[in-house]
Amino acid sequence: MPRKTYRQAINEALDCEMARDDTVIVIGEDIAGGAGGSGEDDAYGGVLGVTKGLVGKYGRARVIDTPITESAIMGAAAGAASTGLRPVAELMFVDFLGVCFDQIFNQAAKFRYMFGGKARTPLVIRSMIGAGMSAAAQHSQALHPIFTHIPGLKVVMPSNAYDAKGLLIQAIRDDDPVIFLEHKALYDTQAEVPDEAYAIPFGEAEFVTEGDDVTIVAFSAMVARAKAVAEELERDGIEVELIDPRTTSPLDEEAILESVERTGRLVVVDEGSPRCGMAADIAALVASKGFAHLKAPVAMVTPPHTPVPFAPNLEAAYLPSNERIAAAVRSVLGETVPAE
Amino acid sequence: MAELTALTMPKWGLSMEEGTLASWHLAEGDAVSEGAEIADIETSKLLNTLEARSPGTLLRLVAQEGETLPCGALIAVLGEAGTDAEAVEAFIASFEAVEPDATEADEASAPAFRTAEVDGLTLRYAEAGAGAETVLLLHGFGGDSGNWMFVSEDLARDHRVIALDLPGHGGSDKALPGDGSLEDIAALVRGFIAGEGLGAVHLVGHSVGGAVAERVAASCEARSLTLIAPLLPGCALNRAYIADFTEAKRKRELREVLTRLVADAEAISRDMVEDVLRYKRLDGVAEALARLGEVAGDIADADPRAPAMPALAIWGEADRIIPPPSGGKVGKGSTVEIVAGAGHLPHLERAAETARLVRANIAGERP
């Protein structure tokens, strides 16, 4: 099977669905390469080249460049979704979604509920999350918990190229608003990705590794770090069950609880801020529904409660490291871990 | 200097890149006869046994149990008893691992994927070997040409072997021909045989692929017919398996379903489950499987009858999907062979024995 990058996988998902369904449109800044002006078509294909080639195939009526007006992009996309199209709106950095909260939180997320189930809003919002590229505090946040908090939104966090294609196809076919969060550090990572179209259901966690000693739940780019740690610990005889929920809303609670029931130990690794974040959410889930199975307190490995630093060394220290993840695992297993 | 032979990590199937040496059957110094079981090799699919192709003495075990090595890597050295240890060391030191399909000598037998257009559908097939006669392998429900990975290399030693992905499966189009009936699929396979100019072929079909092979044999000249756990009219098909396989969407759920296929549940690897799950997610597969499930049910409901031509039928003794016929026969002129220690997949679980039976039938020496 061909190996493809995360970037290619997302591009293929868009291509597959635009070819299959002519109501699918994409809309965003520079996605056609010219910002609606006189620039060369397809010069960039979005800020990171994800939409490259689409304007040539589907034309400017379906690949719509916009000015830098995030709130207008989201408003137009939500409106288009409620009137029969399937827009995929790209909003470069998730950090800029703050100006679109009304369009997303107060409008699109509620249409189905407020219209008694009669309204559909098949809207996908693609955006980049994450630190690790020295993009500084305004371009590096992982804001997935904010969207997960809002009823009516589905939130997807692919951790690899195979999942990215299948989950984006599922997102585009979904009749509700979906926040699709791509980690910028993953765009060049590769995996085996079929050429054909396929859909991965939401709310179905992936068991990345299987083991009986400790459960790790990790999201997005943290999955690869946790996997590296699991492989390292396996050499010491520690068997880790690594779960990638893939979607935070819906969340595959059953997979997490079933795993903790077997292992009795839980470490949650998340790049989001620690307060009111996914790590806290999953810790609460297990504390309330799986407490009897716990043999040790839940460990959470997250950044500190600070903005993302710009300096590379500080940014590296901010992110959950392999060492911190390994120390958390050893800690819940009862091993004495030296203080940092 | 006595001639030394390298035993290497085999490459069973196009997707195999490495294997794990699960256990040695023989020790250093043991005499090896042709066909002797040397080691168990764990692939990403299933465990298989490596057999000796030439006699000799096992001079050195290079790979350790539990060690994972790429295909073509040296795992042991075979030669004459009493060969000087320094010569063996020199041989090991000078050995250069090569992919089996990368050498000129093996080029003819190297498997490759190809495609053919038949009645508007694209069909993928894996081809290996060369010879005057062609063996056409047809997999079962939910499978693909990779299911033949352990036997196709054996058959390809003196035949052209083609393992076809049936429509709805593997790398072939996921649409079914016509209304997806058994006759429509058999007609498509006949079209493939004619289009590729294969002439009269040796037909080997497993399960639903057995039903297709039997229908192809009914209306197309065939040299021989081998049916492995075939879905024959009136058979005792386990319909719950078909329904559960079609419905399973989660890995753990699917793993339980797949364990019903084999005698030893441990044989179902994590990668195998993942591969099947990935296949089931492809557009069009759910529809194709649903229709084929109906077709399978119709065949099982039909009045029993003998195969269209004398056949060898091979069954795993522990087959829980289509149990061996209670009377031990599938019709006049046909033979039934039961393979011990296998379930519904004897060509994967007991590949060497199954390959021997198939070869005998192809050679007209039915057991």
Automatic annotation (TrEMBL), chain A:
Alphabetical list of SMART domains matching this protein: Transket_pyr
Transketolase-like pyrimidine-binding domain span: 4-189
Pfam families (alphabetical): Transket_pyr, Transketolase_C
Keyword Oxidoreductase belongs to the record: yes
Keywords from the UniProt entry: Oxidoreductase, Pyruvate
GO molecular function: oxidoreductase activity
Alphabetical list of InterPro entries matching this protein: THDP-binding, Transketo_C/PFOR_II, Transketolase-like_Pyr-bd, Transketolase_C
UniProt KW Oxidoreductase keyword: yes
Xref: NCBIfam families: PRK09212.1 (NF006667)
Protein name per Swiss-Prot or TrEMBL: Pyruvate dehydrogenase
Species this chain originates from: Erythrobacter litoralis
Automatic annotation (TrEMBL), chain B:
Residue ranges constituting the Lipoyl-binding domain according to the UniProt record: 4-79
Coiled-coil region(s): none
GO CC list: membrane
GO MF term list: monoacylglycerol lipase activity
UniProt cross-references to CDD domains, sorted A to Z: lipoyl_domain
Single GO BP term: acylglycerol catabolic process
Source species, domain of life: Bacteria
Pfam families according to UniProt: Abhydrolase_6, Biotin_lipoyl
Protein's UniProt name: Lipoyl-binding domain-containing protein
Organism: Erythrobacter litoralis
